[in-house]
## 1
Amino acid sequence: MRADQCGPGEFFLDDSHMHENGFTATADHAVWGEHQRWGPMVTFTETPGRYGPGVLAGQHTDAVLDELGYDAEAIAQLREDGVAWSAEVPPIEAMLPD
């Protein structure tokens, strides 16, 4: 496939050379599951890229609060008081058209 015969999204996701050269990556999203995304165009030996999925709002809240020293009871209280919040992960079936 020629790069000028389609849009960049189609080229990056469908061209065999993009796959063979490692320019695409697979990510596992909390809602959408495993999907292909664009990968690195340049790599560095000392600073490898991370090409994971996008995160949901507040997805790492509990882990960050835990790292800051809050125990499970304190985190639950912050959530109950509306201080901490995280988006709920809907089941994928609820997101699909009928």
## 2
Amino acid sequence: MCRLAAWIGAPLPLEDLVITPRHSLLTQSQDATEAKLAVNGDGFGIAWYHQDEARPGLYRDVLPAWSDGNLPSLCRMIRASIFLAHVRASTGAETSRSNCHPFSYENWSFMHNGQLGNFARIRRTLEEGLPDKFYELRRGSTDSELLFLLLLAEGLYNDPAAAVDAVLARLESLRQEGSAAHRITMVMSDGVSLYCMRHASDDLCPTLYLRHAEGGTVVASEPLEAGEAGWQPVLADQLWQVSNGTQRSLLTRAGAKHAA
């Protein structure tokens, strides 16, 4: 399973999440404590937004995060009001730059932790359901990139909650009795808000936490400081939108069903 971290708020050096905390994302790349795999060394990536540019900057590489000598310098020099960072542990797809997160399209960026159950069996059906416009954007072989393209095809840019619902419903329709569960934690941004959600068809969602800090909000797979107050688990099956110092739940049909 991968590890991820994101920020929205006042401009902040990326190193404040990725490098310097005691349990930073860089530390989690070698010593994750709330994942099946402690080591996440199959590449990494960061996406960030500049106030004068709608599309995010993107840097991804196949090296383990701890072995890229450029990463500390980049994270020290880049300041952003919104950024996403990810360290990857592959669930089967090869290690290549095109398979590293975050993925981006126009003003959207997206990263994922988890896996689509029985992906090899359902992959062709899911890809065939993509409109040509989005199928032609596919560069890698991961379930994560395909998940992002499915969300875009369902109108992510107009109604994120409806897009999430439509994709989750499609995934569940392809599950067979007794097959592996879909386990999904995703964080994405349109350059204005952060959106995050946890979902699992067997209720075993990958971890995700949210913390309001000075100047903004942090979202991370694991708390970045041991014993630090204020970390709250992101509730499952609700799409959370964070912007302008506030958060709200965009209750999806999946969330409504879970609540019932």
## 3
Amino acid sequence: MKKRDGVRKFVEELILAICTLLILVPIYYFVIGAFKPRKMILQKPLILNAEMFTMGNFPRAIKAIRYWPALKNTATITLVAIALLIVVSSLAGFAIARIKSRFFETYYSLLITCMVVPFVACVIPLVVLIKNLGLHGNVLGPILIQAGWNIPFATFLFTGFMKGIPGELEDAAYIDGCSTFGVYWRIFLPLLAPVIASCCIVSGTGIWNDYLVCNTTLSATKNPTLMVGIYQFFSEKVNEYGYAFAGALLTSAPMVVLFLCLQKYFIKGITAGSVKG
């Protein structure tokens, strides 16, 4: 029996190792490609040695994608959208989780249903709405779209976490004279760090890496963003892989740092949303 369990464990670990390698190979390919000329990327895609090594891709990528203005716009869109998302979703989650009402139950069901709607199907109506509001070409447009689109998922996480908080804490706060908002602000909000971190990582990564919304609502010349800038290295005639990989490496670095800072909260926050209410 022990021998059979050992064989099964070995096979499971081998399968996981193979899957991990399959995931890491593309990452390895684009990371080393950022330090190689285009010709070497095509001829020897998985090899990097001293003869191939170059840092010349980075200055060209920074200049071509207008890295610093693009970084500023992308960071502004991401940070403001995440801030709006956390405020609205945490308040909605508190109301749904702690206030017994048929209205909130129905609202929660409809909100969860919105999570299965494909984003691509809503792009055209959203762009038309942004244009009618006079926000086309303004960073406020993608901020509102991204915040609104991520609210259902974030509310799902906040609601599940708050349902798991003991009711005695809430009762004690009411006895001490707290209002409903006071209970949210003083009792619940300080406990939401794991969920807030999860929202920052999951939703923040999607907003940071967005191409479709920024490309359709912003001007690449007046309001450049990182992903839209990287796309210009690919055309019908030639693909500048080295510049694109260097730009992708520069673009992904801030999100990697964010994940490393918040990873200890990530798993706890994700599993909090699975609590059955």
